[in-house]
Amino acid sequence: MTETKLYLIRHGKTMFNTIDRVQGWSDTPLTPEGKQTIQHLGVGLQSVPFEEAYSSDSGRAIQTAKIILQHHKEKETIPFEMDERIREWGFGSLDGGYNNILWSLLARILNVDSLEDMSKVSVSYKDFAEAIVAADTTGWAESYEEIRDRVWTGFEDMAKKREASNGGNTLIVSHGYTIAFFLSLIDTRRPIQFDLINGSVTTVIYENGKFTIDTVNDTNYIEAGRNSLVVHNH
């Protein structure tokens, strides 16, 4: 049986990422620069054998997955589906607003000076989720338990399905907070993390009902793809 490995990819850079707005469940398309980075990523990943591919049901994740698969050597044979459980955290009324407003509001609720302080004073994802619920005026923001359950079962179901079919690699396009949060569920000692790069690859291995973190925030596939395109164009 082959090892079961999930390749968790943060979607490409979008309009909202570029103008520093909270995306959450709201959605904007990839920018030209965002598309180009994901094209490089697709070329960098083209020789990794994938048994299947998933993305969240957000447009930016679907767009990213499709660009990656377009470049894959086995693109005709890799089944692709969407799963709403691995979408980004929902920020309720804070969705679509500017990040600095969100952060100053949450910092006040959490009694920290800045975003940087959050990881220093060990604010947990649970604290963070509860602060979002407290700041949200619509009642749409998800509770910590809702986020935890959907994210965990989403990724775990994908891993179980792959393991049951003799293992191999699964490509999954998701979101910055969702991936970082999932890693903290695997390893509870991990501090809160908000710096996953657009197009970065994080890999986790699943064996006998247990996840292990392999690599985090890896941009080598993007570099490899960029370099190989440079070589081909000369």
UniProtKB/TrEMBL annotation:
It holds the Pfam family His_Phos_1. Signal peptide: none annotated. Keywords: Hydrolase. This is Histidine phosphatase family protein. PANTHER family: FRUCTOSE-2,6-BISPHOSPHATASE TIGAR. SMART domains: PGAM (SM00855).
